[in-house]
Amino acid sequence: MVGHQETVYDALDHAHGGEGHWAFGTGFDEPLAGVDTTVPDGVDATDLGSYCLMLGDDALVLAQRLTQWVTAAPELEEEVAVANTALDLLGQARLLLARAGSVGVLGRSRTLATESVPDEDALAYFRDPDEFRSTGLVEADNGDFGQTMARLLVAATVRLAVFARLRESRDPVLAAIAAKGVHELAYHRDHAARWVLRLGDGTPESHRRVQAGVDAVWPHLAELFTATDVERRLVAAGVAVDPADVRDEVREVLTTVLDRATLRVREWPADTPPRGRLGEHGPELTELLGTLQGLARQHPAATW
Predict the structure, then answer these.
(1) SUPFAM superfamilies given for it (predicted)?
(2) Which of 96, 121, 139, 212 has the fewest CB atoms within 10 Å, measured from its CB?
(3) In 10 A of CB 236, how many CB atoms?
(4) pTM
């Protein structure tokens, strides 16, 4: 007689006492086990949560953009690499959104008004576009593969510079997330740089297309280095990184890679207000969130 055999789906369900979740990564070991989650003295919890949303939303949205290349990348090996990069970012997003929810940042949110402590799923799937704090850089359409690698190079370079400094944050959770994330982001940056070099110094057609990709991505640099009021307060409290402080490092890295790839380095754009950080987004984010959130919103009580 054959006894009951537990399926992988049963195992996932049992991992949470029979309470299924939508979450990406739910059921795995807690990566922040043992980290002090107390909000540091003198730090406004709402500001801390808002900052975690900024970093988490960038990771979540860019991860969604990268997954659009699955089954469409130019090489099977590259498909795996892009998917793994997206998973790394998704893991960062999960930790950052969980931190934002744990400090009650969205207790006043329209969509989450009844959520006292919204988890990462609620924040990912049930906020409207104007409640997101991601930048236009990660929200923009992928374009072709050259443009995607140019965007990943810029995004990973900026994020790596920020995370390297966040390892010294007074918030133990942010410091732990950053310490884990710098290794992932170093790979993301170097992987994108290798592709930009390969395409830029390749055939005339690959050079033309990646140059067009760089030119399309470049204007998005304008809003990346202007701090919001939230960031300024948290910088003063020793928690956050002033985005202006990483500008020179980012410029040096990008200039070095583009020069070696025989690509034209455009004039650095003038700083502009950080529209995305303030909840101002174009239609690209609305369209992307329609795909990201559609199933969860159609079946909000579903479990897996």
Answers:
(1) Ferritin-like
(2) 212
(3) 11
(4) 0.86
